[in-house]
Amino acid sequence: xxxxxxxxxxxxxxxxxxxxxxxxxxxxxxxxxxxxxxxxxxxxxxxxxxxxxxxxxxxxxxxxxxxxxxxxxxxxxxxxxxxxxxxxxxxxxxxxxxxxxxxxxxxxxxxxxxxxxxxxxxxxxxxxxxxxxxxxxxxxxxxxxxxxxxxxxxxxxxxxxxxxxxxxxxxxxxxxxxxxxxxxxxxxxxxxxxxxxxxxxxxxxxxxxxxxxxxxxxxxxxxxxxxxxxxxxxxxxxxxxxxxxxxxxxxxxxxxxxxxxxxxxxxxxxxxxxxxxxxxxxxxxxxxxxxxxxxxxxxxxxxxxxxxxxxxxxxxxxxxxxxxxxxxxxxxxxxxxxxxxxxxxxxxxxx
Length: 351
Known about the structure:
Shape: elongated
Oligomer: single chain
Low-confidence stretches: 1-41
Order of helices and strands: HEHEHEHEEHEHEHEHHEHEHEEHEH
CATH topology of the largest domain: Rossmann fold
Mean pLDDT: 88
CATH class of the largest domain: Alpha Beta
Helix content: 40-55%
Number of strands: 13
Structural class: alpha/beta
Largest sheet: 6 strands, parallel
Number of domains: 2
């Protein structure tokens, strides 16, 4: 009997020991699983969709700046970031399709470049609560992407490329002291252009100008529209209208034939042949946008983030274009930075 009790005691001790070891093992495994879960969270790859409305250098610079801004703030493509990039080629139908594809693919964030892209992305992503960070929007309030305080209260924010319109008109007057009428070609579907035209209507009379505008529905309408406009104006002032900028080559070609100068809104347009501009740095604008996107990806409340702008504008002139049109640079513009029209060979060399 004693031997049986002894054996029973040894068995119980053995079972207890095994249970203790198993408990320790499970505890260790649980700790390892927690650590693995944490590591997976830290190593998660973020997916960002970049929806660009049109194919032209200003918006390309925004995109490059955005990617650089993300990288400077810890989100590096190929490491912890996957980028999807699509260009709508100035087609609002394409814009909506691409935005819906990003939402269906459950991206972590959408970067929308230009007003039509931002509006489409926000409309597609709102119910899914996917954040949208936009750039190159001249008037977020007019586009219904922000209220008067600059905040949306929704899952959208970004950066604005609002132009210094009065400085631009003053510059036109310096270069063209005898001019009377400024022409604007714009897309009827771009809220940003309509908003800027309304502002210009208030500004141009202060400098002795009248304003003539012609709207287009699509890029294919531009050649006929510019012919119509050139018959009525002394110069054309180009806005940040994406549909029009995409057809800038044909506008400048037709204007040069009639010796009518075209003013740009940033440096890349001058490289295409515009004569002068109070220029915005679109790479810098894109970087600021990337910085804002990084904050959102790191947990910042996008609904309380006001849209931002950049205030550094630079007077830039194209001496090649001025010489071609017989325009003399005034002494007041001797400090302006100079660029020249890029030839086909220049563009090929840059590539």
